[in-house]
């Protein structure tokens, strides 16, 4: 089967889909809120309440956990898979090879992500680059098969099975309990050390802990929480959405998103009530703990789907008016937006900047993040008036083609 044979002609249209840019910017709003709520710590906190000083902080923390945490990374990951489908469709339309160029593009993203991870331990670009390579073998797999695999991964069924197997096994021996206690002690000491460095250390010290320790912590977090395979599942869902041309404004697609709005809304309501009454934790001592974690995965997926459906329908209703169209330029330069958010977080919260980590309340941290996001909207609109690509998008494309790409609007190249 040739590449692209699973794609319709409309799916390979070169026309940019504005609502996808809006959704990407919308996801970046949630990402900066989540990062700001944790003062860009991006790692284990020595005290979960380290930046919670008031009832307002506690309220904002609860709202972030319920409505923001994990939901916008979900959308961002879904859009990555959608971009893969769009790029594959465009390559098919032009009759050019795809796999080699896409692989090289991801290797460059891996390099960008590695440099980024030296400064910020919460980098997601490296894992995107690695998992993105796994999309290539799926380009010719039938959509029904892809959807089944994607849902299994997104709903964290592997985590559910592993969790039940763990709590159903024989009770731990005294030696195992001792080993766990020692590991917990070492983990707490490591968390305190990394927090101290980020709060008051130099840039060189931050980079030193990020080059190895923080990388291992991130891998452990991705595996333990299931986010590793959940992220790939979201890539696959995005791939299927691209094949279906789901984000073209057509009567049929509007009907699909209306149904998604209703069903995802009901699921989100039920699972939000469950996770509020029975919050999840990293402890896995019983089947109830495992089921609480599974409910959290369902809540994350359903609420993310609700957000996507709501934003898409709102944009299609008024594609040239209101706030949402103003977000499109930011979505076109999503990589630049993501990286400059990191620069904001490091300057404001880390010790080599203003050093506000652990010293500023959570609500104020989130407010600063929102204010910076608003500034990014205006900056992106100004930049995209004169350029076709954001600075880092231009760098990425230039490295992909191994030559400087034209970027001024008057010099737009269609090659």
What does this structure look like?
The chain has helices at 18-37, 55-67, 71-94, 99-119, 125-133, 143-154, 157-168, 174-200, 203-211, 213-225, 227-243, 251-277, 287-317, 328-332, 334-349, 362-386, 391-401. With 415 residues, the chain is mainly alpha-helical.
Classify the secondary structure makeup into a structural class.
mainly alpha
Largest sheet: none
Number of strands: 0
What amount of the residues lies in strands? Answer: under 5%
Which overall shape is indicated by the principal axes computed on the Cα atoms? globular
Indicate the percent of residues in helices: over 70%
Give unreliable regions as ranges: 1-14, 411-415
Instruction: Give the overall average pLDDT.
Output: 90
Radius of gyration: 22 Å
Whole-number tally of structural domains:
1
């Amino acid at each position: 089967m040739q590449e692209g044979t699973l794609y319709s002609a409309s799916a390979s249209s070169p026309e940019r889909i504005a609502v996808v840019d809006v959704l990407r910017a919308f996801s970046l709003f949630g990402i900066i809120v989540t990062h700001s709520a944790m003062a860009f710590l991006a790692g284990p906190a020595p005290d979960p309440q380290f930046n919670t000083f008031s009832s307002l902080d506690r309220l904002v923390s609860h709202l972030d956990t319920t409505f923001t945490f994990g939901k916008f990374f979900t959308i961002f990951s879904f859009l990555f898979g959608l971009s893969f489908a769009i790029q594959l469709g465009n390559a098919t339309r032009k009759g050019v090879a795809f796999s080699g160029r896409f692989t090289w593009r991801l290797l460059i993203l891996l390099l960008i992500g590695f440099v980024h991870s030296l400064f910020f331990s919460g980098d997601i670009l490296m894992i995107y680059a690695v998992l993105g390579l796994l999309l290539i073998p799926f380009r010719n797999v039938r959509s029904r098969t892809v959807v089944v695999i994607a849902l299994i991964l997104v709903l964290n069924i592997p985590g559910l099975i592993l969790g039940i197997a763990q709590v159903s096994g024989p009770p731990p021996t005294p030696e195992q309990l001792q080993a766990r206690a020692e590991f917990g002690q070492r983990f707490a000491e490591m968390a305190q050390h990394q927090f101290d460095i980020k709060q008051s250390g130099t840039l060189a010290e931050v980079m030193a802990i990020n080059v190895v320790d923080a990388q291992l912590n991130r891998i452990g977090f991705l595996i333990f929480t299931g986010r590793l395979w959940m992220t790939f599942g979201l890539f696959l869902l995005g791939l299927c959405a691209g094949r279906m041309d789901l984000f073209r404004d057509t009567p049929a697609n509007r009907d699909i998103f209306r149904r998604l709005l209703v069903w995802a809304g009901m699921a989100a309501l039920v699972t939000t009530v469950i996770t509020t009454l029975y919050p999840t934790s990293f402890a896995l001592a019983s089947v109830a703990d495992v089921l609480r974690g599974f409910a959290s995965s369902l809540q994350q997926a359903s609420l993310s789907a609700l957000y996507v459906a709501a934003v898409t329908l709102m944009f299609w209703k008024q594609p040239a008016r209101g706030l949402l169209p103003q977000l499109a330029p930011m979505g076109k330069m999503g990589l630049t937006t993501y990286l400059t958010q990191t620069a904001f977080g490091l300057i404001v919260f880390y010790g080599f900047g203003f050093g506000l980590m652990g010293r500023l309340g959570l609500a104020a941290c989130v407010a600063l993040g929102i204010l910076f996001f608003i500034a990014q909207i205006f900056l992106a609109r100004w930049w995209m008036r004169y350029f076709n690509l954001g600075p880092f998008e231009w760098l990425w494309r230039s490295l992909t083609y191994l030559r400087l790409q034209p970027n001024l609007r008057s010099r737009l190249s269609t090659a």
